[in-house]
Amino acid sequence: MSDIVSWTSYLFAISILVVLLGGLGLFGYAVQKGWLLQQMTGLRQLGGTDRRLKLRETLVIDPRRRVVILQADGEEHVVLLGAERETILSTGAAKPVSAADLRDAMESSA
Fold first, then answer.
1. b/e sequence 76-99, b meaning 16+ C-beta within 10 Å
2. pLDDT along the chain (110 residues), means of 10
């Protein structure tokens, strides 16, 4: 009788370990895919591909300053980022995306 109890206890402990490790793996997968960030904060859209704000280019001037080109809602903004403040240098219409850029983007996402 004691052999049956010990084997059932071992089986129960192993099954709980498998369930816990599976749940931990599922949690890690959800964090990696961004599902938790999307549900808790709403920072990403459901598709995750159509974003309004894009960082087009960045250039480091010195250790404290950099220039970035941001695209938002069809306009490009050239912004100087410093240690203490940000300055918008220029704003203009965004350049259209060329076929080569679109093809490179499609290849890199696949």
1. bbbbeeeeeeeeeeeeeebeeeee
2. 72 95 94 74 57 86 91 90 88 75 62
